[in-house]
Known about the structure:
Elements: H1 2-36, H2 41-60, H3 72-93, H4 113-147
Helix pairs in contact: 1-2, 1-4, 2-3, 3-4
Membrane topology: Multi-pass membrane protein
Keywords: Membrane, Transmembrane, Transmembrane helix
Transmembrane segments: 9-30, 45-64, 76-94, 122-142
Amino acid sequence: MILSRAFSIFFRFGEFVCAAVVLGIVAYFINQYDEFGVGPLGREIYAIVIASLSVLFSLIWMIPTTASMMHYPIDLLFSAAWFAAFGVLVNWINRVNCGGIFHWGGITRRGSYCGQWKAAEAFSFISAIFWLASFLLGVVVYHKLRRDPVATDGS
């Protein structure tokens, strides 16, 4: 049980970090949209809502209790939401001149629109994987707890 709690904390921390990174990048893009009117506002709003909820729930569920692993259906929903966020971000990159989805050249240039957008894509995908791993861990722990016999006083 101690190993599952350690993995749970690791996954929740990963979810938090990825969501915070996406939240920061997309908040910057929304600010740019507010100033210049350029960008896919609907996609950005979706990504920022998912990132905000993920930051909140991952922080709450980072507290190491067995109950924090019993939210595995919600972990699956968050994973699907993050895969959808990844999809809408990838779909937008096809419409601008940033190269292919997996063309990572120039990503390290400071202030690069394409680099920042691709970083948001990458962290949204990684976040989806962390949420999926939390879901799988929750399923394993839930079924293990259901199988373990309960000690009674014999009456």
